[in-house]
Specification:
Blueprint lengths: L1 E5 L6 H11 L4 E5 L6 H11 L3 E4 L3 H9 L5 E8 L12 E4 L5 E10 L11
């Protein structure tokens, strides 16, 4: 199994462990931090690299287009949590975003995006 990690940020250790638990210990995770211009370009990168799965941090419109193109990306579910003391921060599963206010996110698990619905109204 070969997974494309399309993000400027490296996966957390907890995320790597979860991907290997789900897809096998031999799973290879390759980070690609280069910007992309379209969902079609992402699909081409997947094909060119021989990737089986993708985890991406992208605008919802791009993720929606990926699903239309037949790609069902993995979504790293992060929970916004607030702790009074920094000693509760776990670098293997958590991310601190500087503030103010400082925001603390904990990795929960992966979900597969099947479809993105967008509803619009006139301005």
């Amino acid at each position: 199994m070969k997974i494309l990690w399309l993000s400027r940020h490296l996966p957390l250790e907890a995320q790597v462990r979860e991907l290997r638990r789900r897809f096998g210990e031999e799973t290879v995770i390759v980070q690609d931090e280069k910007p992309f211009s379209s969902a079609e370009e992402i699909v081409q990168r997947m094909k060119d690299g021989g990737f089986d799965e993708i985890v991406t941090v992208a605008p919802l419109s791009v993720i929606a287009k990926l699903t239309e193109l037949g790609i069902k990306p993995l979504w790293a579910e992060m929970q916004d949590v607030r702790f009074m003391e920094d000693k509760n921060f776990n670098p293997e599963s958590d991310v601190l975003l500087p503030g103010p206010p400082v925001r603390h996110f904990r990795f929960i698990g992966f979900r597969r995006v099947k479809r993105v619905g967008m509803e619009f109204e006139e301005v």
